[in-house]
Amino acid sequence: MSSSLFQHKLIHTGKKPYHCDICGKTFSESGHLTSHKRVHTGERPYRCEICGKNFSQNSNLSLHKYIHTGEKPYHCNICGKTFSLNGNLSSHVRIHTGEKPYHCEICGKAFSQNGSLSCHKRIHTGEKPYHCDICGKTFSHNHNLSNHKRIHTGEKPYHCDICAKTFSQNSVLSTHKHIHTREKPYHCDICNKTFSQKRYLFSHKRIHTDGRSHQCDGSLMI
């Protein structure tokens, strides 16, 4: 029996005769065992000739090269968007299907991306792994740390294309644009009054929830 036929038959039998002598994990093919062992040894024999980055798997090198070539061979057959990685396409398709296969075992909330689930879990654990190296403040999400650092650097990368005013956060720019468009997307569900900013809506709602703090009761102060 040829070695290739023997390897193929293991797929049907489920046998995994190749054992990692470091962690005990088993494999049906010797080549898979060889690739796996690089996890332990740190060996990365596959080198990108463009940027010099090394990889443990030849398949990972092939995927990496798309960064340099700009090639995006994976197409969404719903909207036509293209991707360099098949995994990114699979994640994208869930936007169209609404599929959310990743569930939080604590509160049951579902997510379309495993990364989103991991970030969500920090709400329950209180974990804040991202640290500001200037003031030491910690954050649960990396993008929150990036936004925070602009307090120290003074960077304001978001520009209003109407008045050229700059902002440190894109969300603040979006709110600012309501001044120009006169858009008032925030509605009071009690009196239907509209506001351009959420903070104005919050302030307004106090009139309904605690009128005494905003209205004169007619008594004289002596």
UniProtKB/TrEMBL annotation:
Residues 18-45, 46-73, 74-101, 102-129, 130-157, 158-185, 186-213 form the C2H2-type domain. It is found in: Nucleus. Signal peptide: none annotated. Pfam families: zf-C2H2, zf-H2C2_2. Keywords: Metal-binding, Nucleus, Repeat, Zinc, Zinc-finger. SUPFAM superfamilies: beta-beta-alpha zinc fingers (SSF57667). Its main location: nucleus. The keyword Metal-binding applies. Belongs to the krueppel C2H2-type zinc-finger protein family. This is C2H2-type domain-containing protein. It comes from Octopus bimaculoides (California two-spotted octopus). The lineage of its organism: Eukaryota, Metazoa, Spiralia, Lophotrochozoa, Mollusca.
